[in-house]
Amino acid sequence: MQGARVLRGLLPKIWGHGDGVIRQRIPQTQASVGIVPRFFSTNPGNKPASGLRDLPHCNVGTIGHVDHGKTTLTAAITKIQSNKGMAEYLSYDQIDRAPEEKARGITINACHIGYATSKRTYAHTDCPGHADYIKNMISGASQMDGAILVVAATDGQMPQTREHLLLAKQVGIQRIVVFINKADLVDQEVLELVEIEMREMLSDFGFDGVNSPVICGSALLALREDQSVFGVPAIEKLLEHCDSYIPTPQRDFAAPFILPIDNAFTVPGRGTVVVGTIKRGTIPRNAEADLLGFNQNLKTSISDIQIFRKSVPQALAGENVGALLRGIKISAVERGMLLCATGSEDISNHFEGSMYLLSRAEGGRVKPMLSKYIQQLFSQTWNVPARIDIVPSEAMLMPGEHGQVRVTLLRKMVMTAGQAFTIRENGATVATGMITQRLPSLDLPKNKLSKALVDC
Question: Which of the residues 57, 65, 68, 70 is marked catalytic?
Fold first, then answer.
């Protein structure tokens, strides 16, 4: 299969039968490889998901600078909750399992983990912290209702700490719980200084720096089941604050469903599975659906739905699911496409929006932005090249200013009013914005963006 990535040695252990090969089209640097075995089983029967599914559901995740302990913290949470029968323990190596992740010792792809507390269930996204993989962090963060910001006490705030907070705010995250990791390696005075620094930073980015919970601990001690104040008790305190501080979101279960696709893979003998978090509505088994994005509008139906390897008759807004599609080849699916109720959405390559150009102090540009600016645009789980035109066309946008823009995408995508987007240039976030109106598509000569293009 052209463009396919073959993952050998996983299937017998995780899927139980078959030829030992999962064929996954989406490149490893873009897809959430670790999410595959935990979302779909070839032999689930018709057992419903655990009774814990009756609890309220919340999507959270770990964000922060590379090597500050996000994945270790995620592993520690699963270990502690597994001892209570509320999770399956996943070690660090099971979460960061792709060969490049193991070789480099960093998280590259956002990985989704399921666990529960006594009050609700969680789908937890472990986001990459390395600057080279910010696009994967954006995709992961777009699925969260709240976030755990991990900062190492030995370092304090670092470049990706700030950028992750900026992006978290941009994708709509309102509540942040701070976990100061490696607290056992510094003295109390340093911990107090780091807490002050983090509260000031939260306030700088529009979060509640006064009331946001800050917990000091050591993910590594907790992973070793150490019962000292920075070990297991710190993780339990963290989860208590997640339960109380991050509100259970209000979901729209009645509207036509939409599922932004974060990953896709082939199950031998069954077909193509798409994975993502349902943003709106309810997906019943055998529902008719459209697969939209990247200039495509494909018809399909959903023959099976699974939540963490358990078949369910329907899945609700906010839940992370794997959906088995009829008549769709893996080569037709890309991360960033949208699965939706038939006829409920459409695609376009043109929209109006409001945009804020980051100042130099915020890590943005020094020079103003003029019309005909072409750069990569990120929104939800997709990213495509885009041309930005300031309104009116003779205007310019200075760093630190808001302005109205018209945006032309290289590919037709699903877009709705209120949808957030981000512009990145030379590895840094330079602008954030919101779609205000979808416009009719423009014809692109030779299917290319050009500064010579008129009527944008």
Answer: 70
CB within 8 Å of 5: residues ≥ 6 apart: 23, 24, 25, 26, 27, 28
Question: With contact defined as beta carbons under 8 Å apart, do 148 and 68 qualify?
Answer: no
Task: Decide: 11 and 26 in contact? Cβ < 8 Å.
Answer: no
pTM exceeds 0.90: no
Distance between terminal CA atoms of the chain?
39
CATH number, domain 348-447:
2.40.30.10
Q: Which residues contact 251 (CB under 8 A, 6 or more apart)?
A: 280, 316, 317, 318
Centre a 10 Å sphere on the Cβ of residue 351 and count the other Cβ atoms it contains: 24
CA 107 to chain centre: 13
Question: Rounded to an integer, what is the distance from CA 70 to the centroid of its chain?
Answer: 14
Could you tell me the two tokens for 123? Answer: 């789908």
pLDDT tens digits, residue range 283-328?
A: 999 999 999 999 999 999 999 999 877 899 999 999 989 999 999 9
Residue 71 falls in the annotated catalytic set: yes
Q: Which of 130, 237, 310, 372 is catalytic?
A: 130
- CATH number for the domain running over 57-245: 3.40.50.300
Q: Respond yes or no: is residue 408 known to be catalytic.
A: no
User: Residue 263 above 60 pLDDT?
Assistant: yes
Domain with CATH 3.40.50.300 in the chain: 57-245
- Given this structure, which CATH class describes domain 5-40+251-341? mainly beta
Considering 29, 67, 237, 436, which one is annotated as catalytic?
67
Is 381 among the residues known to form the active site?
A: no
Structure-block tokens of residue 265: 């893979």
- Per residue in 378-387, pLDDT (tens digit) is 998 899 999 9
Residue 67 a catalytic site member: yes
CB atoms within 10 A of CB 399: 19
DSSP for 167-204, written as a single string = HHHHTT---EEEEEE-GGGS-HHHHHHHHHHHHHHHHH
